[in-house]
Amino acid sequence: MEEAGVEENQRVLRVLEVLKQASKDLQNKPGFFKNDCNSSAMKALLELETEADNILSNDPNLSILSKHLTCLKTLVDKVGRSQGYSLRSFLHRQIQNYEISRVAGSIENEIQAWIDRKNIENLVSALQGSSIDEEEKVKLLSQLEARLSQGFSRNLQDLVLNSKVFSVLEFVLCNPNFSKRIREQSARVVQALVRFNKDVFVGQVLMGTSVRALISMASNSSIQVLCSLIRSIKSPLVDEIESNGEIPKIISFLSAADLLLRVTAMDCILDIAYFGRREAIEAMLEEGLIEKLLELQRSELGGDLIDMVRFDENEKSGVCAGGVEIESKAKKENKEGKILEGHPYASCVARFAVHLEVGEGLRQREKRAFKQDILRRVREACFSDAEAATIVAEVLWGSSP
After folding, report:
1. In this structure, how many other beta carbons lie within 10 angstroms of the beta carbon of residue 41?
2. For residue range 217-265, what is the model confidence (pLDDT) as tens digits?
3. How many structural domains is the chain composed of?
4. What are the E-state strand segments in 51-184?
5. Residues of the domain holding 112
6. Residue 229 CB contacts under 8 Å (≥ 6 apart), including other chains
7. I want to staple 274 with a disulfide (CB 3.0 to 4.6 A). Which of 45, 148, 249, 359 is the partner?
8. Rounded (to 5) percent helix, strand, coil in the chain
9. Is residue 76 part of a domain?
10. CA separation for the pair 363, 253 (Å, rounded)
């Protein structure tokens, strides 16, 4: 019985997708019906209107759509009968074409609302049950992520809130019984919800357990989502991370076996440096972050960013005057980005200091105090005076040449 219901929904969905595309064609060029009565879009619309009683009558949510289809058929018939070349006939056709476009827009909205409703119902049911396989769950999650990325919709937001989608996603994130793949895709949907409407979903992120779940997952994907949330929510989220005692865990990812996770953890630390307030920065420094960054800067993936860029430039001719010099600066920035792709820890101590200095979380006097603290820690942790002099110079003047 349940399988029959699923098949019926799939049948209706296929028909509605065809109708939705035809409705878009109508809105783009409502007059094309008169000149192309055999178009596939027109056939789909008129055939669906004929079969409306059989396909749409069983679902009360599609009753308005059925009325729109009947209205559309009437308008199309009127345009088809309007064959005169007088000014009056021309104006009449223009008015009818406008009405066709308007009704087509209403049809598209009704179809999208039905599709959203069914997809969310199926998603919540799949995540709360155990009969659906992993592939189908990931597919449903990906569909919602893609839909949210299309932009804000009041109807979609109401569906998400009424269905308690965020709570279901948070349950999945915090439940290790779900596979890593499903949990990571759920995290990406949470990220999409925040982008969809920060005013509504940021509060749910801050009050819930999703951030702790992301950190406990300790995967490259989950920390990427965490970075995105920090950039969206800024200082309040960093405050939450610090108050939950999660900063030591994030710093520990710099020593993870997974290289991608280590690199993403570096990005996360730079984001925290940019948006973090005094308590968060103190927590990172007390955890030995500067010493760890120095260790990474000495590794094969580290190095001196200024020297790397200058070495690359010395292989080419000198800089000319005027506009060519400006172009050269842009090229330097591009070269720096490419170098960081292969050496993600290059000048990482100075980059951390720069993020503190230009960031939003600290007052000016706090920035000055932390800069002095960083310099002190660098001098204490360096192996030689030469190494200390190089890194201190980078911290004082910034990592960019």
Report:
1. 19
2. 999 999 999 999 999 999 999 999 999 999 999 999 999 999 999 999 9
3. 1
4. none
5. 2-119
6. 190, 191, 194, 205, 211, 214, 237
7. 359
8. 80, 0, 20
9. yes
10. 28
Cβ contact 233:360 at 8 Å: no
**Of 92, 125, 91, 116, nearest in space to 13 by CA:** 116
Cβ atoms 262, 256 nearer than 8 A: yes
Q: How far apart are CA 373 and CA 366, in angstroms?
A: 10
| Helices 63-81 and 40-50, axial angle in degrees (round to 10) | 130
Q: Are 343 and 302 in contact (CB under 8 A)?
A: yes
Residue 361 domain-assigned (yes or no): no
How far is the C-alpha of 335 from the C-alpha of 163, rounded, in Å?
A: 48
In a domain, 306, yes or no: no
CB 32 within 8 A of CB 50: no
Amino acid sitting at position 10: Q
- Is there a domain that residue 54 lies in? yes
Token pair for 361: 């979380």
d(CA 285, CA 290): 7
Give the SS3 label for residue 234.
Answer: coil
pLDDT digits over 41-61, tens only? 556 666 665 555 566 666 677
Structure tokens at 224: 């990427």
Q: What pTM does this model have? A: 0.84
pLDDT tens by residue, 101-130: 888 888 888 889 989 999 999 999 999 987
**What's the start-to-end Cα distance of the chain, in Å?**
69
